[in-house]
């Protein structure tokens, strides 16, 4: 067949760029450009760092909840028991202040991606948002967060009854920082107000423990042995669930808690520099044991495990223990919430060699967007949501675990806790040693994810010593860059 | 010139009314028309090129969340990325993923298309059922396969009798497991595209080969395959380009792990830009990926052009 179709022929001897060639190349370039158009999805602009005075200084006169009456604010939240507990109470806030609240919910998996993008773009769309303490280390330096100290100190803006000191000290310190690498928490601006928090302890299947006549382990070596003894793969049952996914979130709960109890630290301060210490003797020894625990008594697909996987396995009787946030395991024991509801109990987890119960915490806090145009209304909302009355109502009427105020914890929370064996005792055992165990630094997410990747590599067979040496070297370079 | 029918040539011919001419369009409007018509295209291209060049510009800055007032750093980001073993690991993972997934989807897709081409009731039913995976968003497919791969309660370990210790997402298997998911989602796409190609082929050559007693395999190798080759290449271009920028179901299943076993270039860019908030480094990753995609696209488009000319008998 010798049909000559012009569409198949190079035009003009194939030397000159024909119309079709041009279209073809434009198509290719366009496709590539479309791909690369993702590039600036990374964000533009951002930072509103300013040396100007705080908007709180403009608020004067006596305190009055109605000072911003008629305004409306937008808040960004993730569907979490804390948010769900407060949602029905928002009408009370509107009644009290005359301020309308519009809530936007974004699933946790995408929450910080959206928040990052919005803040980096300098958008003041959301006046208030939920934030974790570690995020302050990244969001604070570019000026994305409003310093709440001037608001707290201004009696025209803050009610006399607010009692900021009632919030646990470890939490208040966790949300206060001066943005100097390695500088301890507790100095500098107050970048968010703690709203709810989690201590990382052990939840276990008490019914199974009672049946076997055993008790939770008090040392880490005993804990490992206990978890191995409880593991029976043929029955799809294993000893302990904890996070192992390729994320910074793998490091902060059980791992960092026990790491600290064993006496290891993440960084040492050397003059103006931070030196990564994930390869110290204590750190290497502990990491080896932790990975061994995951291999011998953890979930088979540990490297994909997030906290919902771990708590689900506890709830359905697959995992005998979980080393993670107490408030994440708490709902599994509520009637009707899981197969093992009513069978669970809590324990502080293994003490360190010196008896340490150092515990890492996570706090969901409320922060104000520095680009907000309605700062007084936003502050009144934060003040109300973290205040005694609203928090007590949330505890009484819903599943608001671990309120951040001592008065609410000792009052409404204890009254409503019900049959949660060991929950209060565990809390009281660890609360004085509960604080952020990480060294504050602006490259937290990058370097902590590197740490999780190193754990996965060791889990996959790499030598712990050499892998942690490499990790420490790269993280030292990174944090000091 | 007039033709005299009546012979009355002394009478002047009636004046024909000139058709009414539309009011003349001013010259400036005639000149402006092409430009006005081009506006939508220009806007679309600007919408693509502006972020592209902005992204490329970020690649030569040190722009990050903690450094919102960046300075020009030249090719420092490129040097950093190109000397990073993680980047080359991601290139390897991306290429292995793209080659194996595309290759497997082509082989299976062509096979399924040939089976579906046989007119039968079962074939017609399968033709419709096959579209189902294409209706599932890759993210959802990732979630579904994540549950199926679960060693504790996943259906795969149960069906294959692998117990609760076989881990489909271990370091050694994770890449192959995510490739399997891609094959599940996109083989029907290839099958449908090739099937459309097969059904558009002329019947004469096939009837002639049947009359000549050619075997099925001979006919396939000498007739069907060369004639559907352009369709296969179109499918290759679509799938290979997509695979080079794969992200969704891998991120859902493994987030790039264990270690860096499934960390593709897109996942690397996402980590740098969105998680670590290092926009310049993320842009550099994406720019390098763009170069890879651009070169591959150009090559594949030129191969497609040759194949089309060959199929039309213009070459070889």
TrEMBL record, chain A:
Matching NCBIfam families:
TAT_signal_seq (TIGR01409)
**Keyword Signal part of the UniProt annotation:** yes
Q: What family, per the record?
A: Belongs to the bacterial solute-binding protein 1 family.
Signal keyword on record: yes
User: Which PANTHER family does the annotation name?
Assistant: ABC TRANSPORTER PERIPLASMIC-BINDING PROTEIN YCJN-RELATED, ARABINOSE-BINDING PROTEIN-RELATED
The name under which this protein is listed is Sugar ABC transporter substrate-binding protein
- Pfam families xref list: SBP_bac_1
Q: Which species expresses this protein natively?
A: Phytoactinopolyspora halophila
Task: State the UniProt keywords alphabetically.
Answer: Signal, Transport
Quote the InterPro entries the UniProt record gives: Bact_solute-bd_prot1, SBP, TAT_signal, TAT_signal_bac_arc
From TrEMBL, chain B:
Provide the protein name: Sugar ABC transporter permease
Specify one Pfam family.
BPD_transp_1
Q: Which organism is it from?
A: Phytoactinopolyspora halophila
Q: Which SUPFAM superfamilies match?
A: MetI-like
Listed under GO biological process in this entry are: transmembrane transport
- CDD domains in the record, alphabetically? TM_PBP2 (cd06261)
Family the UniProt entry places it in:
Belongs to the binding-protein-dependent transport system permease family.
Q: Which GO terms describe its cellular component?
A: plasma membrane
Indicate where this protein is primarily found. Answer: membrane
What UniProt keywords are attached to this protein's entry?
Answer: Cell membrane, Membrane, Transmembrane, Transmembrane helix, Transport
Read off the InterPro entries from this record: MetI-like, MetI-like_sf
Q: Where is this region: Disordered?
A: 1-26
Per UniProt, subcellular location reads as: Cell membrane
* Segments crossing the lipid bilayer: 35-60, 95-117, 129-148, 173-196, 223-241, 282-301
Is the Transmembrane helix keyword given for this protein?
yes
Q: What is the top-level taxon of the source organism? A: Bacteria
Q: Please state every residue range assigned to the domain named ABC transmembrane type-1.
A: 91-300
């Amino acid at each position: 067949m010798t049909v000559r179709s012009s569409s198949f022929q190079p035009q003009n001897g194939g030397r000159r760029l024909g119309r079709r060639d041009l279209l073809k190349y434009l198509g290719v370039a366009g496709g590539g450009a479309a791909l690369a158009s993702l590039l600036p999805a990374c964000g533009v602009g951002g930072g509103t760092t300013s040396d100007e005075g705080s908007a709180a200084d403009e608020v004067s006169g006596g305190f009055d909840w109605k000072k911003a009456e008629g305004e409306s604010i937008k808040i960004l939240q993730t569907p979490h028991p804390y948010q769900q507990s407060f949602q029905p109470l928002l009408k009370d806030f509107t009644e009290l202040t005359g301020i309308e609240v519009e809530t936007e919910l974004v699933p946790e998996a995408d929450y910080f991606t959206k928040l990052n993008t919005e803040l980096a773009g300098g958008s003041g769309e959301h006046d208030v948002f939920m934030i974790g303490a570690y995020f302050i280390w990244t969001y604070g330096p570019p000026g994305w967060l409003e310093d709440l100290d001037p608001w707290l100190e201004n009696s025209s803006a803050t009610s006399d009854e607010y009692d900021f000191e009632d919030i646990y000290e470890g939490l208040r310190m966790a949300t206060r920082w001066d943005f100097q690498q390695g500088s301890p928490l507790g100095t500098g601006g107050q970048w968010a107000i703690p709203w709810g928090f989690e201590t990382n302890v052990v939840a276990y299947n008490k019914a199974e423990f009672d049946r076997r006549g055993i008790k939770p382990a008090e040392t880490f070596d005993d804990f490992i042995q206990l978890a191995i003894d409880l593991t029976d793969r043929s029955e799809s049952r294993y000893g302990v669930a904890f996070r192992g996914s390729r994320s910074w979130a793998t490091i902060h709960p059980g791992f960092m808690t026990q790491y600290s109890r064993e006496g290891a630290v993440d960084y040492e301060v050397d003059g103006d520099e931070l030196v990564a210490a994930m390869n110290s003797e204590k750190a290497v020894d502990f990491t080896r044991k932790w990975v061994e625990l995951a291999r011998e008594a953890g979930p088979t697909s540990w490297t994909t495990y997030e906290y919902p996987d771990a708590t689900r396995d506890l709830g359905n009787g697959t995992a005998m223990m979980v080393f993670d946030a107490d408030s994440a395991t708490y709902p599994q024991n509520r009637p009707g919430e899981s197969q093992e509801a009513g069978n669970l109990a809590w324990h502080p987890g293994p003490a360190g060699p010196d008896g340490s119960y150092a515990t890492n915490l996570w706090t969901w806090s409320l922060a104000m967007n520095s680009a907000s145009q309605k700062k007084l209304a936003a502050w009144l909302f934060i003040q109300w949501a973290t205040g005694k009355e609203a928090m007590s109502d949330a505890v009484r009427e819903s599943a608001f675990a671990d309120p951040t105020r001592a008065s609410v914890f000792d009052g409404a929370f204890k009254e409503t806790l019900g049959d949660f064996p060991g929950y209060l005792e565990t809390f009281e055992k660890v609360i004085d040693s509960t604080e952020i165990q990480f060294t504050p630094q602006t490259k937290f997410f990058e370097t902590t994810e590197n740490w999780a990747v190193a754990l996965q590599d060791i889990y996959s067979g790499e030598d712990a010593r050499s892998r942690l040496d490499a990790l420490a070297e790269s993280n030292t370079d990174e944090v000091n860059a | 010139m007039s033709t005299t029918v009546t012979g009355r040539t002394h009478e002047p011919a009636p004046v024909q009314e000139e058709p009414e001419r539309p009011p003349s369009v001013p010259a400036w409007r005639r000149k402006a028309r092409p430009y006005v018509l081009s506006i939508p295209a220009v806007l679309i291209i600007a919408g693509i090129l502006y972020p592209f060049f902005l992204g490329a510009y970020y690649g030569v800055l040190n722009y990050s969340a903690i450094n919102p007032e960046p300075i020009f750093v030249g090719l420092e980001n490129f040097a950093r990325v190109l000397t990073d073993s993680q980047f080359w690991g991601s290139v390897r993972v991306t290429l292995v993923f793209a080659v194996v997934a595309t290759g497997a989807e082509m082989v299976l897709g062509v096979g399924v298309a040939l089976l579906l081409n046989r007119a039968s009731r079962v074939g017609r039913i399968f033709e419709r059922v096959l579209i189902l995976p294409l209706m599932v968003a890759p993210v959802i497919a990732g979630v579904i396969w994540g549950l199926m791969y679960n060693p504790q309660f996943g259906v795969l370990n149960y069906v294959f009798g692998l117990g609760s210790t076989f881990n489909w997402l271990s370091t050694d298997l994770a890449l192959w497991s995510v490739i399997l998911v891609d094959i599940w989602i996109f083989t029907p796409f290839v099958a449908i595209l090739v099937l459309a190609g097969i059904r558009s082929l002329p019947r004469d050559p096939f009837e002639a080969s049947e009359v000549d007693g050619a075997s099925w395999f001979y006919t396939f190798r000498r007739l069907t395959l060369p004639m559907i080759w352009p369709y296969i290449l179109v499918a290759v271009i679509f799938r290979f380009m997509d695979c080079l920028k794969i992200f969704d179901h891998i991120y859902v299943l493994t987030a790039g792990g264990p270690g860096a076993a499934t960390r593709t270039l897109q996942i690397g860019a996402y980590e740098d830009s969105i998680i670590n908030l290092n926009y310049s480094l993320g842009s550099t990753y994406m720019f390098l990926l763009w170069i890879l995609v651009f070169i591959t696209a150009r090559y594949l488009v030129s191969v497609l052009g040759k194949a089309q000319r060959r199929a039309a008998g213009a070459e070889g």
